[in-house]
Design goal:
The chain folds into 2 domains: 81 residues; 37 residues, no CATH class. The chain is mainly alpha-helical. A two-stranded antiparallel sheet has the order 1-2. The protein has 4 helices and 2 strands, in the order ααββαα. A hairpin with a 4-residue loop joins β1 and β2.
Length: 130
């Protein structure tokens, strides 16, 4: 029986308690592997960003809009895109204050919005080394 099936099957309470050490061990192993994989992804993203910067700088300086990549039968395109900035609590309150012409009214509006926002409850496990 795999560790995953233990969690999906309905098991009597005594059996659950007996299997708990093995389930915890399997969970910790997967958690540690996941942390390692996330670190590897983070490192690769940093390297990708550096390479992308070199490619973009070169394409921009030589006015290259597209490159045909014969080996992969693909095309690399240089694109410009604009996006909106993030909307944090602080910036939202500043913009509301500017719009309403009153920081007091903006604070009241933010309090109202925060009061009406939904609350999500998450149940998680955390592991601490002693």
């Amino acid at each position: 029986m795999s560790d995953y099936n233990i969690m999906t099957d309905i098991v009597p309470l005594e059996t659950e308690l007996q299997q708990l050490p093995q389930v915890i061990t399997a969970w910790r192993k997967l958690r540690d592997e996941s942390i390692d994989l996330k670190e590897q992804v983070r490192e690769r993203k940093v390297r990708m960003k550096a390479l992308e910067s070199v490619i973009l700088r070169t394409m921009k300086s030589h006015s290259i809009g597209a490159l045909d990549l014969k080996q992969s039968n693909a095309r690399l395109l240089f694109k410009n895109k604009e996006s909106k900035g993030s909307l944090s609590q602080k910036s939202l309150e500043e913009h509301l204050g500017e719009f309403l012409k009153s920081t007091e009214e903006a604070t009241k509006a933010m309090a109202y919005i925060n009061e009406k926002r939904g609350v999500k409850k998450l149940e998680t496990l955390s592991f601490e080394k002693l």
